[in-house]
Design goal:
This protein is of the alpha/beta class. The protein has helices at 55-58, 306-319, 333-342, 357-364, 379-396, 418-432, 475-492, 520-534, 576-588, and strands spanning 11-14, 17-23, 41-44, 63-71, 80-85, 91-96, 99-105, 111-114, 124-132, 143-147, 153-157, 171-176, 181-191, 194-203, 208-214, 220-225, 228-233, 247-255, 258-267, 272-275, 278-281, 284-285, 288-292, 323-325, 345-349, 402-409, 438-442, 459-463, 497-501, 540-546. The strands form 7 sheets. It has an 8-stranded parallel β-barrel with strand order 23-24-25-26-27-28-29-30, surrounded by 4 helices. A 6-stranded antiparallel beta sheet has the order 3-2-4-9-6-7, with no helix packed on it. Strands 1-12-5-8 form a 4-stranded antiparallel beta sheet, with no helix packed on it. This is Beta-glucuronidase.
């Protein structure tokens, strides 16, 4: 499923803007069958939760409805007409007039519908999209709904970020020829000074396919015929971290000598490999510096915003970060495209967060079953997880910035049943994409002695909060515990280990002459301690701070106005730790600290 883009044979219409909007209620019976009641309008893309001043909307659990009129361009007669939604959090239903044309579960990957037989070129139709934000034991992320004493439905979930909902990414109407390219897969390699671009073109019919590759100046450097093949690029310019170089691959479907369909795809030639305790890009050791991030901004929630996209990447460049993890779900594809063009390395993560009922039990005073048992999150969840993994890899497989798949964040990997749950998923990821390593992140209570799944993965990511959740305010004890913890992972597993989360909540503007938790000075000292420890281990391959910026969470005693572990405030103003990280990361300049 290719991302919609205008080509010589395809056209694209954005459906972003203000849509009619209503949340589900007794008065809404078959909301797709006519005009939505009321006068509310909601912007697409954005989450709907923070837009309005009505708590019934912000705290709504269940279906919400978007609607607008759409006119099909008159020049599309005889063309295939497709409707595509980049996401619908977490369950989407799409109606063209009164007809259900698409349904999708999973809030962070795209889906589409061929509506050619339901619309006419030059005519308009009523487009209604339902979005259900309810989380259950069978969804990713998981959750459950309780009914309060006054009859309200309340969503409970196991992850620590706000459950924003709605149409947070773009909606498109696009055309293709009836005889068209459905998908393209690209895998790159290097042989001496030459690049190898393996390709596979999936066409809707048994047609002639030809493929060409052009360099950044538009000069043709390779061409081939056939739906499957390899292009050789002499004197290849590699895609490098911090120095992106993109070729353009163009695939064409040809009938009787005429081009019937054409699609162009940016291609970065680079290699990724794990060798012993090293992570290699283009055969050179790579040390990750950067963040776990979130799609989270004021008012918009998880709504994709190009202005924040550009500014956030400017901050990554300013601070000296070379990478980030898409915690804890696939980000908008525009984010990866920007990373492709600017040489930022990405660890791409599924929405598998909250697979840890022990944490949920501690947060809700329940006594939960084992996470991966049939009473907990068993076979049904693994099927859901597998589908999320398929859709993530299908969407992002061609991005050179993506160097690793992260299958899950902080699962209960120390529990019985964890290996049996993750082994089929690890195998599936390698089957879908043998070219990239896979990883996961181990939570604080999963250590080198009790973790059951680390052997399944190429890189071990550990999330550690010594000095915050453990040894709070005692950085001396935290340093000893952190060093012992990292040493145990490196000594047991002959593979790369990196810190995928470490951080301390900090109120911007709170200062202290002492090591007082929540102060900006404590956050700086916290990071200095961690970096001393990291630099003692040559087998350590990276540091991702939690988090890039403060973000919204549910209301809780330990979460005043959200999670405050950001190096930048939610509005992107820097805290003191930003300057400490800038000093360190710009000093590394891509080399490992032990070098």
């Amino acid at each position: 499923m290719l991302k919609p883009t205008p080509t010589p044979t395809r056209e694209l219409v954005s459906l972003d803007g203000l849509w009619r909007f209503a949340v589900d209620g007794p008065e809404l019976e078959r909301p797709w069958s006519g005009r939505l009641p009321g006068d509310r309008e909601a912007p697409v893309p954005s989450s709907y939760n923070d837009l309005f001043l009505d708590p019934a909307v912000r705290d709504h659990v269940g279906w919400a409805w978007y609607q607008r009129e759409v006119r099909v361009p008159r020049g599309w007669r005889g063309e295939r007409v497709v409707l595509r939604l980049e996401s619908a959090t977490h369950h989407g239903r799409v109606y063209v007039d009164d007809v259900l044309v698409a349904e999708h579960i999973g809030g962070y990957t795209p889906f589409e519908a061929d509506i050619t037989n339901h619309v006419e070129a030059g005519a308009s139709f009523r487009l209604t999209v339902g979005v259900d934000n309810e989380l259950t034991p069978a969804t990713l992320p998981p959750g459950h709904v309780v009914t309060t004493e006054d009859g309200r439905r309340r969503q409970i979930y196991h992850h620590d970020f706000y459950n924003y909902a709605g149409l947070a990414r773009s909606v498109w109407l696009y055309s293709t020829p009836l005889e068209h390219i459905r998908d393209i897969t690209v895998v790159t390699d290097v042989d001496g000074d030459a690049g190898r671009v393996g390709y596979q073109v999936d066409a809707a019919t048994d047609s002639e396919v030809r493929v060409s590759l052009r360099d950044a100046e538009g000069q043709r450097v390779a061409e081939s015929g056939g739906a499957t093949g390899t292009l050789t690029v002499p004197d290849v310019v590699l895609w490098q971290p911090g120095a992106a170089y993109l070729y353009t691959l163009t695939a064409e479907v040809v009938r009787d000598g005429a081009v019937v369909d054409s699609y162009s795809l940016p291609v970065g030639v680079r290699t990724v490999e794990v060798r012993g305790q090293e992570f290699l890009i283009n055969g050179e050791p790579f040390y990750f510096t950067g963040f776990g991030k979130h799609e989270d901004t004021p008012v918009r929630g998880k709504g994709h915003d190009p202005a924040y996209l550009v500014h956030d990447f400017e901050l990554l460049d300013w601070i000296g970060a070379n990478s980030f993890r898409t915690s804890h779900y696939p980000y908008a594809e525009e984010v990866l495209e920007y990373a492709d063009r600017h040489g930022i390395v990405v660890i791409d993560e599924t929405a598998a967060v909250g697979l840890n009922l022990g944490v949920a039990g501690g947060m809700t005073a329940r006594n939960p079953p084992l996470t991966f048992s049939e009473e907990g999150l068993g076979v049904q969840m693994r099927h859901t997880h597998a589908q999320h993994l398929r859709e993530l890899i299908q969407r992002d497989k061609n991005h050179p910035s993506v160097v690793m798949w992260c299958i899950a964040n902080e699962p209960a990997s120390q529990e019985e049943g964890a290996y049996e749950y993750f082994e089929p998923l690890a195998n599936l990821a390698r089957e879908l994409d043998p070219s990239r390593p896979i990883t996961y992140t181990a939570w604080l209570m999963a250590n080198a002695d009790n973790d059951r799944v680390a052997s399944l993965f190429d890189v071990i990511g550990i999330n550690r909060y010594y000095g915050w959740y453990i040894d709070n305010g005692d950085l001396s004890s935290a340093e000893a515990h952190l060093e012992a913890d990292i040493r145990s992972w490196i000594e047991k597993y002959d593979r790369p280990v990196m810190m995928t989360e470490y951080g301390a909540d900090t109120f911007a503007g709170l200062h202290s002459l002492f090591d007082m938790p929540w102060s900006e000075e404590y956050q700086v000292a916290y990071f200095q301690m961690h970096h001393r420890v990291f630099d003692r281990f040559p087998g350590f391959v990276g540091e991702h701070v939690w988090n890039f910026a403060d973000f919204r969470t549910t209301t809780a005693v330990h979460r005043v106005d959200g999670n405050k572990k950001g190096i930048f405030a939610r509005d992107r103003r820097p805290k003191s730790a930003a300057f400490e990280l800038r000093r360190r990361w710009r000093g590394l300049e891509g080399r490992k600290p032990s070098e």
